[in-house]
Task: structure prediction
Amino acid sequence: MTIQGFAYIALVFLLVLGAAFPLGRYLAAIFEGRVRFLRPLETGIYRLAGVDERRAMGWQSYAVALLLLSVIHFALLYAILRLQFYLPMNPQHIAGMSPRLAFNTAASFATNTNWQAYAPEAQISDGAQAYGLAVHMFISAAAGIAAAAAMMRAFTGNAARLGNFYVDLTRITLYLLLPGALIAAVVLVLAGVPQSFSGFITAHTLQGGTQTIAIGPVAMQEAIKELGTNGGGFFNANSAHPFENPNGWTNLFENWLLLVIGFALPIAFGHMVKDKAQGRALMAAMAIILALGCIGAYAAEAHGNPLQIAAGVAPGGNWEGKEMRFGIAPSTTFNVSATGTSTGAVDSFTDSYTPLGGAVPLFLMQLGEVTPGGVGSGFYTIIVFALFSVFIAGLMVGRTPEYLGKKVQAKEIKLAMLGVLILTLFILAGAGFSLVTKSGLASLANAGPHGLTEMLYGWTSATENNGSAFAGLSADTPLLDYGLGAAMLFGRFAFMIPVLAIAGSLAAKPRLAASAGTFPTTGPLFIGLLIGVIIILGGLQFLPADTLGPLAEHVLLQAGKIF
Amino acid sequence: MILRELRPALSLVVLFTLGLGFILPEAFTGAMQAALPVQANGSLLRQNGQIIGSALIGQNFTGADYFQPRPSALMGTDAKGNAIPTPYDASESGASNLGPTSAALQTAIQQRVAAYVKAYGPGPVPPDAVTSSGSGLDPDISLANALRQAPAIAAARHLPAATVTDLIARTTHHAVLGVIGTDHVNVLELNLALDKLSRP
Result:
């Protein structure tokens, strides 16, 4: 561990939180329809699509619209992946995907997960990346942010209306994701990220051999991959690949991109409800947990692997699976940021992290992706935790809890609990079942507790819509293609729909004025309570499984046991 | 209720696919090919008109007169379909994914340490020299690793040791303020510079 390593972590937080305040104000302006610089294009889209932009939707209509659009888009992607051999922009003549892999991949990109059971260089065409995957990276991110905007509106009035899904989706795409991704993509090309449709390149190397170099329209996909917390790499090695992430500067930039919207959303919330301290409190809870994760993972990886030091390797940290140009702290901070958001991008391979270094990304996903979580999904999930917090505080003093003047009653808490339990069920039952089947065990690349962690990580990542992996896991099997595909769909929609129902229920309630008995939802007391609730409700049910995985492995590693 | 939403949902999927999936990447690729052709095409290096590699992508070097890159975990198949190591095959990418308690990793590291000490003499073994990278295409090695290799390279090329260390100093990429990035050298860049001094 070095001062420079901690300085890097501090730098990331400074840049992200500093940008989140102005970006949050801008997001609120988008949600409220005050950003109009592409107004002719926007109204053109509404006219062509038959969208009545003055129509305000109740939660059911909002949920139906979101689901229907996702289902249609899912079906389109499935068709593209199956038929890519016959479709344009396929210079490598890559064959269509198998039904089960196409299902898994379509589920993965429709849910903003970007779990990749395929090897991109060999199994997906440039065209399918661009008009299949990259479009989903925009739209699934925009849909998540739209659901967050709907949740914010639950606290702004008492009209039982959450806004118009199509308008939210269009505005978020046109005014946030498209310009953001364009600017970011130009920056990335300047730094060396390719953008070409020319097909692979053959080089004649210095030693007299040949090298085939995979290349493609990388920069645009890389930009939206980070900005929209998607994570689906153009290449198998994801952001460890030099073409996705050429140097220390791009690594910092991509790290910033994948965090900034997640931290801006609570700030936007503060503007929407005209009480900025509320947004800052949620942001503080997110940032504190993430910062602890960054420090923990950095400490573990900088400490290194005692077995390697015993084998004669000089101290300097655990470098297996890490790229030289980044360094230890930037590598761990990137992976922790990408699992604290639901990005799932990696610039180093978590499967080769030390047990505790790898436990941090796993635990951040298990907390429910709220630090700051996926764009939109992180926000509505932390609202669920905030409702739990005021509920628990209310139980302690025997008062009906309120959040921002909206009474939180049994109905909301039941719906929230339903969402949390669905996630838990998929993770624990899925991983448990896979570990007692032959097919599941055959997918493991590592033995001992590390193998258990591999499988647990896979189900956690899919259910929480993260998409990163302990990548040794062979995920293109019938069990995992279908199982994890279902986990992604349920993890996204079976959580989002109860959340929209909560939003609808809260929206219909009158906003009460704060009284002397109202539990304040700003300030250190609330932030501490919220962090506690996130860790207890989000994390505690996974502790037994984590004990058998990374914690057991840590103890065995110290004892010098290998498998 | 569902029928009412069908037209807008379907239309938006079609419109966004056309706009974001076709027009945007085509227009953006065209603009970048025109404005930044070197970067947009993969920062390729040429010698006598022939592409010799990418400045960003590592290459495999095996000769004793070249600086050696980091181990690469990439695997491919031979003509008979058997799995074989294909280090620095840039048509693919990926890591070993071996965990910290993996016996296979421990054995590999022990073998690499022994080979490194045999090639470059006793002394500390920099971690990057014996661990495989994330991409399998890592173009860089640490400054410490390059300096450890320098005397052997100088001897193989019949160059004064100081010439080679000067070359390393000239091609080192430094961490900005010690915080962003690391002190490292690009192996292809260094070996190219070496070839300019003395053909192998």
Summary: Chain B touches chain A through 101 residues (CB under 8 Å). The CA atoms of residues 70 and 129 of chain B lie 5 Å apart. The first helix of chain B runs from residue 2 to 35.
